[in-house]
Write a structure and sequence with these properties.
InterPro entries: DUF402, FomD-like_sf. The chain is an alpha+beta fold. It has four helices and ten strands; from the N terminus they run E-E-E-E-E-E-E-E-E-E-H-H-H-H.
Length: 187
């Protein structure tokens, strides 16, 4: 049985923006992957809904980003969403919570793999209000630009992200089975 976890997206003021349930897929000790199947309740501040897609979320210790990849019910790539975040070092393959602090700017990958960035205006407003955002400005925008280029070429952190899934029932597998299948999935 896979370890359960809750992903929590937190804003720099400490308030929670979103949370949802997932399962650890222990593919590595260097990065951490969370499987969220379609049908999972997504609790966001603006509202709650049931996810119509599968998702893999990727976390790296001390990285300035997280990556969330959506797949349709058959396991085909739908979208990617990359949050620029404050680095966090305590991720593990068994953590009950995977918490990240959003810095508001994002890279989005569309279904056709075209890429764009967004929410620079939100970052500007937050930087006026929160010193941690202003202090992170240079690194945040360096990371935004780097992630955009990596997403366009499917390199860097995207090099481990499958464009399609060989199956979509990871929650039914043992940790070893799930990790092996994901490691062997075509990139």
């Amino acid at each position: 049985m896979l370890f359960d976890t809750t992903i929590r997206k937190v804003l720099v003021d400490g308030s929670q923006w979103a949370s949802w349930h997932g399962y650890h897929l222990p593919v590595s000790d260097e990065h951490f992957v969370i499987w969220t199947p379609a049908g999972t309740q997504m609790d966001w501040r603006p509202g709650t809904w049931i996810s119509q897609k599968h998702q893999l979320s990727y976390f790296w210790p001390d990285a300035w980003y997280t990556i969330h990849i959506g797949y349709d019910l058959s396991g085909n790539f739908l979208s990617g969403y990359c949050d620029v975040v404050l680095p966090y070092s305590d991720y593990t393959n068994t953590a009950a919570e995977m918490i990240y602090t959003d810095l508001y700017i994002d890279v989005v990958v569309r279904e056709d793999y075209s890429v764009y960035t967004k929410d620079q205006d939100v970052f500007q407003r937050a930087a006026q209000r929160y010193s941690i955002v202003e202090q992170s400005r240079q690194k945040s925008f360096e990371m935004l630009n780097w992630l955009e280029e990596q997403a366009k070429r499917w390199t860097g952190p995207f090099a481990i992200v499958p464009r399609s899934l060989p199956r979509t029932d990871f929650e039914q597998l043992t940790p070893e089975e799930a990790a092996t299948i994901l490691r062997e999935a075509p990139i």
